[in-house]
Amino acid sequence: MFVLPEALLLARLQFAFTVSFHFLFPAITIGLASYLAVLEGLWLKTGREAYLDLFRYWVKIFALVFSMGVVSGIVMSYQFGTNWAVFSDKAGPIIGPLMAYEVLTAFFLEAGFLGVMLFGMQRVGKRLHFTATLMVALGTFVSAFWILSVNSWMQTPTGYALNANGQFISAGSWLAIIFNPSFPYRLMHTVSAAYLTTAFLVGGVGAWHLLKDRENPRSRIMFSMAMWMAAIFAPMQVVLGDMHGINTLEHQPVKVMAMEGHYQSHANGAPLILFGIPNSARNRVDYAIEIPKLSSLILKHDINAPLAGLDTIPKENQPPVGIVFWSFRIMVGLGFLMAGLGLLSLYARARGKLYHWTGLHRFALLMAPSGLIAVLAGWVTTEVGRQPWTITGLLRTVDSASPLAAPAVAASLVAFVLVYFAVFGAGIVYILKLMAKPPGAHEPEPPHIPVRTAGITPAAAIMPAIASPQGSHQS
To answer: CB 164: neighbour CB atoms within 10 A?
Structure first.
């Protein structure tokens, strides 16, 4: 029997689980593809074999992460058709073409050049191979472009009209749909986050190996490049986050109210609540530790600027404040820790201690997964903060779900959890084993010919016999 609240909750949990799992892999591949392009470019420019060794070291990891990202992403389309059929029907005329553009441009670009990048170094010229690596890096960015355009349109829908069947269609300009108000800020913030995710992952691996052997030149290069990225992009991410926050205040003020924990309106400057326990039953943040008027200064750049609170929003239109409040603080807290590590690395570099400061290396190792945690926290803030809407202000989540029975959704959710942890868990363990091995001189590259997943085909055994004189005589 169909019970809407139970089935809806299970469908949301299933999508949250699968999309969060999937999001980890593109967060790595977007930055890692560009890192590989930089490594190969430096090798071609300088001729230093250490750069080529690092390229071969990380390209194997990239291939595994990329493949797991592709496989985990396929499940998204399955869920759109089963658990969210009403959403697919109503938003399909807009969402469908944008997703098709992602496949026709980004995925085809990545897939077309990935094989050359992985297996073609000894088969094509150095320039062509470098071009393939650049195309794969470009493909990951283009993929992020289209996916974030889709998600941003759901957050800040523009350029649409409704047809006679209640479906969202283009009002005439696809540019208004693609470049919706939140898209540029979301694109910059997310891509920068992906670069930071890769930087701290690479930096953590480099720190791990420096703790074992400080004289390994490849570990030194790895760690140094990662710390330069941390020192440059982490402060930049703070600025991009501020721009994104101001844009969100303009177009999705309710989300900002939940992020800030502003249950009440403030007519003469709103405080910045650092920590506390959101209490939606009593419309307050218990045990709040706050700085007076700082929220108005950050969001409005005016210490006395008024800010509206959730008391101006009907209860049925408010997101779950506790989740948004804490996921936002996890993301911001990790962002400041990243910036701190970047600044600390600059100090160590200036003092000549970048490769010999054990405390810095341990800090970097501890921060290795911080980018992954931060992007997940940011994703939760974005998606949960949009509730109770799938398309902000236009289509509610409760009206987007398929008429499924709760046991059916529960069964598929359990199946996904078991399969994901078994298959992707094994893949992640193998990746960690590759990372645990230090990069060495003359790092082995992937085989020149891809391994057949189905083993040796019958044709491979028959052809030598047919080609031999004895075989021809017998036939």
So the answer is: 5
